[in-house]
Task: structure prediction
Amino acid sequence: QRELVESGGGSVQAGGSLRLSCAASQHTFSSNSLAWFRQVPGKEREGVAAIWLHEKTPIYADSVKGRFTISVDNAKRTVHLQMNNLKPEDSAMYYCAASWRPYESTLSPGDYPAWGQGTQVTVSS
Result:
């Protein structure tokens, strides 16, 4: 099976909400951290949110704090990103990723060797 498969992207008006999901394989769900990143053409990939799977401790980029929530559903082996009060600047391809780094979660792409294919989020004004 695919290691990480994102879904839930789409087009929404500013102020709206979307919930992204990332189905993880047994291998990637056995990682230490799962995270969401986003990227737009011409810009570097940026970390959005990450969660330490052992204690479910989340971290967020300042730009999304208070609006986005990352969570994990152990039964479904899925990580979610609830995105509320979306802004046009949130438009990007969103990727989920897994890290086996044996330390606290980070928002650094280099710490994540396993990646999904991405799901597009477009927020119109």
Summary: The helical segments are 26-29.
